[in-house]
Amino acid sequence: HVKEVFLDIACFFKGEDKDHVIQILEGCGLNPKYGLKVLKEKALINVNEDNSIWMHDLIEEMGKEIVRQESPLKPGKRSRLWSPEDVYQVLTEGRGTNKIKGIMIKLPRRDGIRLSSSSFSKMINLKLFINSNAHLSGEIGFLPNELRFIDWPEFSFEYLPFDSYPKKLLKLNMPRSYMSGLGEGFKSLANLKSINLESCQFLTKFPDASGFPYLKELNLNYCISLVKVHHSVGFLDKLVALSLEGCDSLTSFPTRIALKSVKNINLRGCRMLNYFPETVEKMECITFLDLSHSVITELPSSIGYLVSLEVLTLAECQNLTNLSCSIYELQHLKSVSLFRCQNLAKFRKWSANSLPTNSNISPELRYLNLSGCKSLQEIPELPPKVER
Questions:
Q1: Domain of residue 15, residue span
Q2: Which has the closest alpha carbon to 283: 314, 252, 253, 262?
Q3: What is the pLDDT of residue 278?
Q4: 239 part of a folded domain
Q5: Hey, what long-range contacts does 46-50 have (CB within 8 A, 24 or more apart)?
Q6: DSSP run (H or E) holding 93
Q7: Is residue 17 part of a domain?
Q8: Is residue 10, in this structure, part of any structural domain at all?
Q9: Three-state SS for 41?
Q10: What's residue 1's pLDDT?
Q11: What residues does the Disease resistance protein Roq1-like winged-helix domain cover (predicted)?
Q12: Phi and psi dihedrals of 368, rounded to 5?
């Protein structure tokens, strides 16, 4: 396992974030934490202050030479491919074999590679596919079932055109892609832990996610044509981070949520979204909620179920007229921004044009921004920790 970790770093992950590498290699069945520890003790790698993995150029080249010697004349019989010439030959001529475990495409300039339906057909043990900068066109008839990590920005096909979905896939990274839909087979990727479809500007809806019991991260930021997110997303027990920042067209979002593990929800800039869902049970992990630049008119009374919330941002929610009194149940709030909520005039169960003087505002509150709240005329005495 230590040798496998060493070769993966030399061929693919030099300079990458350590935690990111650990997540990927664990998904490939390795023990990267132990491997990195041993490699560091042997001075083969180091970890920089920014958490990136450092490896000397000579050691990197040594690792790559070990892989080359697996099959000096036939790159399709090596365990890893990274050389542009080798990758091009193997993919365009269908020379891959069951020896290949990982491929990284990193061309000296942004060129194209035309795939055929058989490009991946013999790579039954392929686990990593990383496309850094190539424009891939043609056909994809098959992706190996052993694939754990796909990193394919600017995916140029309209749909995920896989007849056989890689059912062991853990991480799907396809930002800035041209897909308008995800296809029926997408639902069969039951082991997914991370989905990144940021800036997929033609994607119109995110489908049923009830088949993703292990999903931890969902990034749909700046999917500007996204109209609908399936209600099942609101009930993903393992989801930690949900981000839909800048989804200008989003109107249909789960109306009820029970996200037991979620820490961050980002709906900033969803300019067509006029509600935040009802929380049907306590969500004890969430610390961050951003609804800035949305058109919500009020917060639901169930906002009090976000019991660990520390940061609440509602900046420039210009249609916001009411805050539920349940906000005073959030006793861990440290930062609240109501910047330019110019129509905010009322806190339920209290009089308009003022903050309730008898409320128990979070004793942890340090930052409160009410700039531009033109309808508010007075505020109560604030906790001593408030700085601004």
A1: 2-63
A2: 262
A3: 97
A4: no
A5: 47/18
A6: helix 84-93
A7: yes
A8: yes
A9: helix
A10: 87
A11: 3-71
A12: -135, 115
Specify whether the backbone of 107 is left (phi greater than 0), alpha (psi in -120 to 50) or beta: beta
Helix then strand then coil, in percent of the chain rounded to 5, is 20, 20, 60
Q: Is residue 15 part of a domain?
A: yes
pLDDT at res. 380? 60
d(CA 139, CA 155): 12
The Cβ-side half-sphere exposure at 273, using a 13 Å CA radius, reads 31
> The CATH number of the domain where 13 resides is what?
1.10.10
Q: Using only the alpha carbons of the chain, give its radius of gyration.
A: 25
Instruction: Give the H or E element holding residue 62.
Output: helix 57-68
**Which amino acid makes up residue 79?**
S
Specify the number of domains making up the chain: 1
The sign of the dihedral angle between the CA atoms of 320, 256, 176, 195 is: positive
The distance in angstroms from the start CA to the end CA of the chain is 53
Q: 3-class SS at 4?
A: helix
Q: For the chain, list residues with pLDDT below 50.
A: 348-352, 354, 357-358
* Structure confidence by residue, pLDDT tens digits, 321-351: 888 888 888 999 999 999 999 988 755 444 3
- Centre a 10 Å sphere on the Cβ of residue 195 and count the other Cβ atoms it contains: 23
List pLDDT tens digits, range 249-278. Answer: 999 999 999 999 999 999 999 999 999 999
CA distances 173 to 153, 154, 194, 373, Å, are 7, 10, 8, 40
| Structure token pair of residue 17 | 């974030």
Between β-strands 46-47 and 53-54, what pairing exists: parallel, antiparallel or unpaired? antiparallel
State the Cα–Cα distance between residues 316 and 309, nearest whole angstrom.
20
